[in-house]
Amino acid sequence: MDYYDPMVLFHSFRIAALTTVIAVSAHSAWAQQTGSDSRPATDESPVVSNPALDAELFYEIFLGEISARTGDPGAGYAFMLEAARRSADGQLYQRAADIALQSRSGEYALAAAKAWKEALPQSREANRYVLQILVALNRIGETPDLLRQELAQSSPRAKASTLSALPQMYGRASDKALAAKVVEAALVDELSHPATGPVAWVSLGRLRLAAGDKSGALDAARRAQALDDANEGAARLALELMEENTPEAEPLVTQALAKQPVPELRMGYARVLLGLQRYPDAARQLEYVTKEKPDLVEAWLVLATLQLQDNRLSAAESALQRFMELTSAATDPEVRQKGLTQAYLLSAQLAEKKGDFAAAEAWLNRIDNVDEAFSAQSRRASLLARQGKVAQARELLRNLPGTSADDKRMRLLAEVQLLRDLRLYEEAYQVQSELVALAPDDAELVYDQAMLAEKAGHPETMEKLLRQVISQKPQYHHAYNALGYSLADRGVRLDEAKQLILKALEFAPSDPFITDSLGWVEFRMGNKAEAKRHLETAYKARPDVEIAAHLGEVLWSLGDKEAALKVWKEGARTSPDNETLKETLKRLGVSL
After folding, report:
1. b or e along 264-296 (b: 16 or more beta carbons within 10 Å of the residue's beta carbon)?
2. Nearest Cα to 63, choosing from 52, 51, 72?
3. pLDDT tens digits, residue range 351-364?
4. Cys bridge to 224: 201, 320, 361, 445, which one at CB 3.0-4.6 A?
């Protein structure tokens, strides 16, 4: 049979349209006989009270469908909308709106949805269509009453789902602040209600956060938790705020965990702490997780990684063993292979730390996952380098398979990292220059080249490269900060250094590393009290070892040696080999 034959199309559409009319007529007859409508009160009841209209209605539906499906959606929309108006049938209004949406005619879809809502003002589906189309058209200011009606017509369970979906629904709004304001106006009753208040405040908080209003989002999270002190949504919003450098949100997380220790929430907390480089705190949370839910596979791997980093080798080995036991029991072969590959790579690293290079090589030999071949070879290169065979390690990386530009880039990146780890900065700078030659307009690659130039003892080259980055990408705040910090650290052109750092803060006002730079330049300028204030703020937001080195030096210079030693010891626990900390302690003649 030829499915493109015009007569075949005609008959198929005739049957489809006839089926629609029969359904409409049958429903009307049922309503007349029983005096009732079997469908829910919010649904639309087709009204075809005059049988003489059946043929005309059929004709309009038929023409609407055949026009829409054969390349004339405008005519299809017009016929279907006219049929909807004649019958006052919600399904036909919806079909008219759908035809317009499928042809990307938002205004026509809105017109059909509004006509539907006018004909059937209590229709929840019509109200929802108008609401969603207005949001899609970015006409956010017209939606509050529609949102109120949607919530008023929802059951308690459906209302919670609707409230939770609001951040996603309004997520495409160009004016995020307006979206938050409009939703807040629509949710006045819900925000104060004990049953809906927590989820309503959390959704409002997410909208405020999307608009960049961190203080408003924090207030929303606090209000949600005040209504329900074990509210998980409020705690998850607080985690997002912590990721956005809002440390005041952390008590909301710890309070929720104290009331209801949800392992998944605690795992999320540990991930955020990892991102903030608070490794000891993250490890403590992971230890709780492995006790609360000992079969949570991911927790064991991350815990082992942190314990390895902290040189707790025996504990790391035990955690890895548990991870491998759980992973080996996985029913999904792909999940099992990927998990075991991660375990073998980490086990090789652990053996390397112990100085057992043969065992490390044995672990790497167990990896048969082709996708992880690059990671395994990179680890082999590290093993060779640790044994003094740097030339062989570099040769291994250079000869990794792959001929594409991405393959070459990956090989060079691995070599740079190897040389950086070995503190062979001049060699790393030369290889990074090869990378930049592949993509000279890549600002991040040039930035990394500048950082290596400084490490290699070429400050003039570093400054030239950073100014090149600023010229290429004027909003790349890292370049302003790096140049300002370098000048401050060398004690030269301090006024210019401060202006560069302040410029970086304009682009990233909450970045703790830029705040650290500001504190450091103030210290170099002799403003110790101001330096202490900035560095304490930075260290509270991100207890990084380099910030600890700077804060400790300022405290030491102010005579608060006990506080300085405390901060330095905290930094040394997380990164005992950090060059900045070691240089600071050596220069000041301090032993921890």
Report:
1. ebbbbbbbbbbebbbbebbbebbbbbbebbeeb
2. 72
3. 998 989 999 999 99
4. 201
Residues 487 and 518 sit within 8 Å (Cβ to Cβ): no
3-state secondary structure 225-241: HHHCCCCHHHHHHHHHH
Which of 40, 36, 47 has the alpha carbon at shortest distance from 93?
47
CA–CA distance, 119 with 295 (Å, rounded to integer): 56
Three-state SS across 370-431? Answer: HHHHHHHHHHHHHHHHHCCCHHHHHHHHHCCCCCCHHHHHHHHHHHHHHHHHCCCHHHHHHH
Put simply, whether the predicted model's pTM sits higher than 0.85 gets the answer no
* Residues 144, 145, 148, 149, CA torsion sign: negative
Q: Give the span between the Cα atoms of 468 and 440, in whole angstroms.
A: 11
* Burial class, 152, CB count within 10 angstroms (exposed 0-12 / middle 13-18 / buried 19+): exposed
**Least confident piece of the model among 18-27, 237-246, 325-334:** 18-27
Torsion of CA 40, 44, 49, 52, to 10 degrees: -140
* DSSP type of residue 154: S
Give dist(CA 208, CA 202) in Å, integer: 10
Q: What is residue 270's three-state secondary structure?
A: helix
Count CB neighbours of 135 within 10 A: 22
Q: Which two three-digit tokens encode residue 408?
A: 């070459």
- Give the tokens for residue 184: 């807040």
DSSP codes, 48-96: ---TTHHHHHHHHHHHHHHHHHTT-HHHHHHHHHHHHHHHT-HHHHHHH
Q: Is 590 within 8 Å of 553 (Cβ atoms)?
A: no
Q: Decide if pLDDT at 18 tops 70.
A: no
Tokens standing for residue 500: 């560069």
Give the whole-angstrom CA distance, residue 285 versus residue 257: 11
In whole angstroms, what is the distance from residue 296 CA to residue 282 CA?
A: 16
Q: How far apart are CA 90 and CA 27, in angstroms?
A: 13
Token digits of residue 256: 């929720």
Phi and psi, residue 36, nearest 5°: -145, 170
Question: CB within 8 A of 32, min separation 6: which ones?
Answer: none
R_g (Cα) of the chain, nearest Å: 32
- Range 5-10 contact pairs with CB under 8 angstroms and sequence separation of 24 or more: 9/66, 9/70, 10/66
Dihedral in degrees, nearest 10, Cα atoms 509, 513, 515, 518: -120
Mention every residue, 6+ apart, whose C-beta is less than 8 A from residue 336: 327, 328, 330
Reading the block at residue 76, the tokens are: 């299809």
Side chain identity, residue 382: S
Q: What are phi and psi of 311, to 5 degrees?
A: 60, 25
For residue 94, give the amino acid letter. Q
Contact 554, 529 (CB under 8 A): no
Query: Who contacts 122 (Cβ-Cβ below 8 Å, separation ≥6)?
Result: 41, 42
Predicted confidence (pLDDT) at residue 346 exceeds the cutoff of 90: yes
HSE value, Cβ hemisphere, 13 Å, CA-based, for 188: 7
